[in-house]
Amino acid sequence: MSQPQTPLSINLVNVWAGYRRQPILADISLSIAPGDFVGVIGPNGCGKSTLLKVILGLVKPARGEVTVGGQPPDKVRSRIGYLPQLTQIDFNFPLTVWDVVLMGRYGKLGLVRRPSPADRAAAQAAIERVGLADLRHLPIGQLSGGQRQRAFIARAIAAEPDLLVLDEPITGVDITTQHALSHLLEEVNQGGITIVNTTHDLNCVASSFNRVVCLNNRLVAFGTPEEVLTRDILNETYGSHLLMAAGGDRLFPLHDHTEAGEHSHAVEKQRT
Amino acid sequence: MNWLTQLSALALEPWQFEFLQRGIAAIILVSVTCAAVGTHVVLRRLSFIGDGLAHATFGGLAVGFLLKLNLFASAVVAAVLTAFGIGTVSRKADISLDTSIGILFSGVFAGGIVILSHDRGYRGDLFDLLLGNVLTVSQLDLKLTLVTTALVISCLIVFYKELLFSTFDAAGAAAAGIPVLWLDFALLALIALTVTTALQTVGVLLVSALLVTPAASAMQLTDRFGVLMLLSAALGVVAGLAGIYLSYFFDVPAGAAVVLASTAIFFICFLASPKREELHVPEPGDAAAGPDAAGHFHRIK
After folding, report:
1. What is the phi/psi pair of residue A18, to 5°?
2. What is the interface pTM, i.e. ipTM, of the complex?
3. What is the pTM of this model?
4. Domain residue spans in chain B?
5. Mind listing the pLDDT tens digit for each residue in B2-28?
6. Cβ contacts (< 8 Å) between A90 and chain B: which residues?
7. DSSP element (H, E) containing A32
8. Fewest CB atoms within 10 Å of the CB: A169, A253, B265, B282?
9. Element housing A103 (H / E)
10. What is B16-272's CATH topology?
11. Which pLDDT tens digit goes with each residue over B210-229?
């Protein structure tokens, strides 16, 4: 990245969001410092994606205030990189890896303007950073799960952002790929970019992030992994569906990717 | 060389009549426009919208008839309003665009039927609009078609990046500051305008094929969006021309002939598609299938 990075802070004050009588986010207040690497955890439907969209300015809070770098999110859009949930993406779309990464620059370009050499250089740097340079001409449909995540992370980085907002950047890939992606994100974070990402992988939360948001429509806890990853807080976040094992001075959830209902079933079995 | 001159004479034959020239020009313009917009339609999985908006114009035509307004203008207004209605209902009522199209177009179409049921006169020109008629394309119609084509194509070029981004990934585009909502409605308006313009030549019942088939054919052949759009437009023109000749020499309705040509092109592209090539699994002892000296495998036909 050519320019010096000035990571963005995020501030939410009593934020409410949702539809009708069903609040998806209820009275959320939290303060994310510049350069933080924040993991957002919680069960399905707990408001993780909505929280990210509030930070991006895509969902306007019904009540409360959001600022990013002290300004409304709309004002700093060009400084935010976003990775949407990839389940929303049509991978049969006729685009190559390079096309997708270059899209990261579209927000900064005006109408009619074609990407400049500087835009191409930024996209190239991003694609090299995630290790996809050799596959840049491949149609996105031919990528593996991990490569897809990498391509979209590259698109987010290509915007040369000061804040990355990532919706499940390491979901649905094998363990080796998870580690590689976590490592990549740690590097990006250390380069001076605030990162907020949602995840289902609680082990990763413990090892990579310096702040954890536990969400269950309301804010259950916000703090360092050591503070937050306790039996009580996790049970409150997930509604007592987790089995946990002590490892050293920390708790590790025995966690798989099944739905909450199956979890509770498994827990019942263990208990009897 | 005699057969060549004969062939070219044959090829030029339809062009010698002025009314046919207009029809041919109109059908080619309409094919290009539909095919170009159609790439976004197909990629957004909105294939049903061509049919829907074409039917919706019927409501506008009925009102136009009743109030003796300009029919093209009434049809365009009905299509654009229905398109906006479809977008709004889908967004606000939180139902899929497909369902929203289904609700609104049939409502507007039914409105047209009710209005016309009170008038028992012969509706020859209305019948033309159901099936299309290249022979009745007037000078004014052609000019309108030209204006629509120019407008639609320039919008597709000016908003190329923005439309591509929001068609591919609406949430990502919105996060990047691209006015996705605006573009959605602009695209719906362009589709409405395109469909209405195409009614004259291919008619309500077939217009959706012009929108969807060339783009779907081109998708069989390419993995690049830019190429897809150009190829789709080119296939649209080929189908348009082929349809006109079929129509002229076999004396069949031009709209139907164009659509048939387009369908045939789709199946040719489908069969020729490199995307369906099977993996060649090397057999043990199949020397030709092994890696060469440099360690590369070669695809064997």
Report:
1. 150, -170
2. 0.84
3. 0.85
4. 16-272
5. 788 888 888 888 778 777 888 889 989
6. 43, 168
7. strand A22-32
8. B282
9. helix A97-103
10. ABC transporter involved in vitamin B12 uptake, BtuC (1.10.3470)
11. 999 999 999 999 989 999 99
